[in-house]
């Protein structure tokens, strides 16, 4: 337990890796030559590309004798450390052995909890069955007979050919010339939403909680695809659409930005309300999402570079949504509803969709109430907070607008109640407010 208590981000002293060190030295020497070659000179070529593949250009030798001498000395430096230079391992020997046994134990799987940073050790069969249960939901996923990656690459090439003036040569290279790897699916256990886990924590009152296969444990679906066919297109479109988020009235960047929007004074009958949309990413219908993005594009067209046409952006986004394929336990799957949490454009996409729905809500709210509800309704991704009057009618409007989604709400005249039940370490506690349906 001592080695696990260090957390998944703890890095044990690695063995000497001469291959990686050699590559790093070559890259460092290349950067030295580039700095000497270009100096502080700015590029004179007008390049409007917002993404590009990394250059492999390396200046030739002979321009700076001192630099050549230094690089030659560095390149010939012995990479294998001498016995007296070896770094002491930062883990005691017994913990090294324990870590090795954990790595070799194929009967368990270790994941970080969805919230709070706790480590969750699960039986591998239990984990597989729970994820499989999630993937068997035909509303969100469909099993494939084979991989769709080649077809997806062709669709991206067709998109670029259809809109030749929307991308530069470097952007085309970035979007099409890279090594593709299949996305993998995994789930983060939502122990903060499990009643069985909560009960076990309260009963055992210990830093290490043991519970046998909780039936009500859910998992946050993550599609890890840093080199999937659409990951670069997703990054490209995200860079273009992200500036639109600042025009969503409820949008806040982070927790600190939220504090800046809290009113200095509130009326005596004001209430603080919070609500959390359940599984927002997977519950956005593709048509609604595309309609929402189209709405913001047409409303603030001047924000987007004119070379990027609306049709190019919407068709590119549709390719991302329609081709979210991944691999789990020997099978290929397609996500048929919503967007993957792992894709770059997902947070921007979700923000614009929620903003689109809120715009409809404001039209109804403002016809009956003052503008306070709109001014004080703030949201970070799927989590919303609002300061308003003690009146249930605005919340009926919220239900009408968000009828597609399940969400938990809490309201109070003074505070938001919290209860803590996940102990991350002696100095940090994770809090989760009471859920009121």
UniProtKB/TrEMBL annotation:
Domain of life from the UniProt record: Eukaryota
Protein name per UniProt: Reverse transcriptase domain-containing protein
Source organism per UniProt: Mytilus edulis
């Amino acid at each position: 337990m001592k080695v696990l208590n260090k957390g998944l981000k703890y890095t044990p002293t690695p063995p000497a890796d001469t291959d990686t060190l050699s590559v790093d030295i070559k890259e460092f020497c290349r950067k030295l030559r580039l700095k000497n070659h270009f100096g502080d000179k700015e590029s004179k070529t007008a390049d409007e590309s917002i993404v590009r593949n990394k250059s492999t250009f390396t200046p030739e030798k002979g321009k700076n004798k001192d630099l050549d001498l230094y690089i030659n000395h560095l390149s010939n430096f012995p990479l294998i450390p001498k016995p007296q230079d070896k770094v002491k391992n930062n883990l005691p020997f017994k913990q090294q052995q324990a870590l090795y046994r954990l790595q070799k134990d194929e009967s368990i799987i270790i994941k970080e909890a969805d919230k709070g940073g706790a480590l969750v050790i699960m039986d591998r069969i239990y984990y597989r069955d729970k994820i499989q249960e999630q993937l068997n939901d035909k509303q969100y996923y469909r099993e494939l007979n084979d991989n769709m990656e080649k077809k997806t690459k062709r669709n991206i090439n067709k998109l670029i050919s259809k809109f030749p003036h929307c991308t530069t040569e470097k952007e085309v290279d970035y979007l099409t010339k890279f090594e593709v790897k299949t996305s993998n699916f995994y789930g983060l256990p939502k122990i903060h939403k499990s009643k069985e886990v909560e009960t076990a924590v309260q009963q055992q009152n210990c830093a290490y909680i043991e519970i046998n296969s909780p039936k009500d444990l859910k998992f946050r679906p993550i599609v890890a695809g840093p080199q999937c066919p659409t990951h670069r297109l997703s990054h490209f479109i995200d860079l273009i659409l992200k500036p639109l988020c600042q025009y969503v009235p409820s949008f806040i960047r982070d927790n600190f930005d939220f504090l800046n929007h809290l009113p200095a004074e509130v009326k005596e009958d004001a209430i603080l309300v919070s609500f959390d949309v359940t599984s927002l990413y997977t519950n956005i219908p593709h048509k609604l999402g595309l309609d929402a993005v189209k709405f913001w594009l047409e409303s603030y067209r001047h924000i987007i570079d004119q070379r990027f046409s609306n049709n190019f952006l919407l068709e590119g986004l549709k390719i991302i949504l329609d081709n979210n394929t991944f691999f789990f336990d020997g099978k290929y799957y397609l996500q048929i509803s919503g967007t993957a949490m792992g894709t770059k454009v997902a947070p921007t996409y979700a923000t614009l969709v929620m903003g689109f729905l809120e715009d409809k809500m404001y039209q109804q709210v403002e016809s009956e109430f003052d503008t306070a509800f709109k001014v004080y309704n703030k949201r970070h991704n799927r989590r919303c907070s609002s300061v308003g009057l003690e009146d249930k009618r605005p919340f009926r409007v919220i239900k009408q607008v968000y009828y597609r989604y399940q969400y938990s709400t809490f309201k109070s005249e003074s505070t938001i109640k919290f209860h803590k039940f996940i102990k991350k370490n002696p100095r940090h506690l994770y809090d989760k407010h009471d859920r009121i349906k």
